[in-house]
Amino acid sequence: MRSIRNGLLFISPWIAGFAAFTIYPLAASFYYSLCDYSVLKPPVFVGGANYHELLTDPVLWKSLYNTMYFAVFFLPLATLLAIVLALLLNTGVRGMTIYRTIFFLPSLTPLVALGILWMWMLNGEYGVVNYVLNMVLNPLGLQAPIWLQSTAWSKPAIILMSLWGVGHAVVIYLAGLQDIPKQLYEAADLDGARWFSKVRHITIPLLSPAIFFNVVMGLISALQVFALPYVLTDGTGGPARSTTFYTMYLYNSAFRYLRMGYACAMAWILFLIILALTLLVYRMSRKRVHYGG
Amino acid sequence: MLAALICLSGCNIIIPQPRDEYVDGRLRITYWEKWTGFEGEAIQRVVDRFNGKQDRIYVNLVTMSQIDRKALVAIAGGDPPDLVGLWSAGLSQFAEKRALMPLEPFMEKAGMRREAFTEVFLEQNTYRGTLYGLPTTPASTALHWNKRLFREAGLDPERPPRTLAELDEMAGKLTKYDENGHLVQVGFTPSEPGWWHWSWGYWFGGELWDGENVTFDTPENLAAWKWIQSYPQKYGAEELRRFQSGIAGQFATPQNPFFSERVAMIVQGVWMANFIQTYAPGLEWGAAPFPSAVPGLEHVAMVECDSICIPAGARHPDEAFEFIQYLCSQEGLELLNMGHKKFTPLKEVSPEFLANHPNPYIEVFITLADSPNAFYAPLMSMWYEYNDEITPAFDMVMFGTTGPEAAVSMVQERVSDMWVRARASIERRERAEAEAAR
Description:
The complex is a heterodimer.
Chain A: H1 2-10, H2 12-33, E1 35-36, E2 44-45, H3 49-55, H4 58-88, H5 96-104, H6 111-121, H7 128-137, H8 154-162, H9 167-179, H10 182-190, H11 195-223, H12 227-233, H13 246-256, H14 260-285
Antiparallel strand pairs in A: 1-2
Helix pairs in contact in A: 2-14, 4-8, 4-9, 4-11, 4-13, 6-12, 9-11, 11-14, 13-14
Chain B: H1 2-10, E1 22-23, E2 26-33, H2 37-53, E3 57-63, H3 67-76, E4 83-87, H4 88-96, H5 104-110, H6 119-123, E5 126-127, E6 130-131, E7 134-146, H7 147-152, H8 164-173, E8 176-177, E9 183-185, H9 219-235, H10 237-247, E10 265-269, H11 272-279, E11 285-288, E12 301-309, H12 317-327, H13 330-340, H14 351-356, H15 362-370, E13 374-375, H16 383-399, H17 404-437
């Protein structure tokens, strides 16, 4: 008993901070989600009205669709790209550290700068991406898409830009690759295994904890995609709301429309969605993630 | 522990009350403003001149981006600046939440006359009968046309269109395709510059709100949206969109489609002359009232202004108003607006101001601001929500995926619902306040 008391006493600074900066805001946001609250005036309790309105808000459903679309395409692509890059960067070619730095650099670029840069590269008429694409497509009688100005291509454009930031995941995968015991590969070599079989039967299973970690983190960040589309569209989510993502709508509700109560309700719904999806990933991973040792 | 924290902050140990600060024995008041560059220099000159004359007050000018959101947080947090420069379009939202101080009592005390100001700019700073801001830098919009392109197309470069039908016809003559059938030059498109998609109905005699109800689906507004649709129909939705994708987001650059002579006619504000001077000094241009669609409906123009306000909870409102009084004097406003290259929101203007003004068309803009058909964004607390419904509907009509009837009724339906909800919220809050007062 005493040791518990002493232990609690020792971590009390942390508990105080956790209570003041995490528990209290969480509780407050839940309370505000039940209120008509504009930030500038004291909240007025309205019960479940915000949640009820959310169900029938077409913009919310549109933003949820956009966000899911982003996550469904971004997550597998980012995972695949990061693993492939990590495998390539783990081959021990000369000057490897330089290559690793190069691939990590884009993830250090501030998102706003990245957004402006890509806006230029993806310009429908004068962008460098379309210049190259049109060299290939025009002879076939096709035209490159106009990316951010098109309702069909604006989301793929944002997925493409976001893939630039896989550097963080690559670093984690690289660390995971270093952890795989060399003797397993040697044994496989003796058995005459080819490169692909080694990747399939040794690398991927032993990398699975890292993959699992990255997938969960990637899922959470994909469902909260905000900065890039916000910068690219000046917060409008255009054209025709094709890039209105969930957190953008949440932010606009809170700080543009001054509907903080409604935004809090949206935040709780998003929290539940992320929680449910993360639990799902946990369940699915049980048999597929191999912790070595 | 939490209780202890609250107690500590309650005892002013953690969060000390801000103390008055003095500069050379003068009380320092804080003024947040959004302008940078030459616009920022202009307000700094006004502030410096005020400070130079003062022995009691020192105004500290702080430049701020996203000023409305920062002001919101500062006001909500109880530590606002003494003065803040807002946009007139966002003022209703702040006023509805009582985040600003009514200015009439200060004006009365100081002997400032309402009549000195051009009425339309006071209207924009009034919410439900109370004045919450005073106009600082006003603006009106007009048709800007490229005289060289007019000459090239065989049009009289000194004669802008006088009716909307004439504008459409001239636009046709000013539109060019390359050998592959791609648009390379556009006479006019309602999607440029893309800042006021909500405004087109006013040139057809429509309005967005009658003070009580959302009036988006009136025949006048529908006519405007049919006119909007006529552009993608004439020039091809896909082609227009491709053209648009080349010029998007390039306002303050030499690639601005008006500067690079890819769009011959455009609606722009009084500030456009500054940008032309910076990015396309050789451009031959003119400005005239944008023509209306209805005979007899003349000098229709969108007007807006920047406003100076005293946030609720400001600690030195009287001193703050003293600065406003100077800023909004003829001297202050002419100094500021000469720097901004705009006109002043005052009825009386010194002859030197007009004679020395760098914008050759400044009188066009003054006339438009004075016009009975000048209009501004509806004074609704939920205006941003309204506007954010119009923008996607506009995109859909320009893309050719939705007809004007469907777009107009969609916006009407959505915004009417929002308005019912917003009104309920206002009433609920007023009831809660009345109860609290009792």
